[in-house]
Amino acid sequence: MVYNLALQYVQNIEDAQEITQDVFVAIHESLEGFNKQAQLTTWIYRITINKSLDFIKFRKRKKRFGFISSLFFDDSNELKHDVPTFDHPGVLIENKEATELIFRYINGLPGLQKTALILSKIEHKPQTEIAEILNISVKAVESLIQRAKTNVLKKLDQNEGYL
Fold first, then answer.
1. pLDDT of residue 159 exceeding 80
2. Does the structural domain 91-163 have CATH classification 1.10.10.10?
């Protein structure tokens, strides 16, 4: 559950493993503060989402710093060629490029739309649980999922010839 959700965000096996480890460390460190009336899985999902988003922010900052450094230093091309890979073991589709394109569009969605779509369509969570995880109403979840699907479909329509 934790690993698969992290993998949906970072789409790299090693990064997802690192996030998974961070999540379990965070769970261990904050287990005493867990509200026993809440669902444990909801709490774990929230930690996983936060750790995944933190990892992505850190990676973007690191790449940005690498690019800026490369403007001034000759030996700083370490991050310049860091291209994310798509290594999701659960996806067995002949056309890898189409899959990469779809996931690129999902990754380009605004934060809550992306999270709601991933939890709904990839993690198969019910909307009530997604509402708990995101701390929003079920109606808001429905709206986020619908807008996310609409946005991805618009992008796919724009690239119809590519697929």
1. no
2. yes
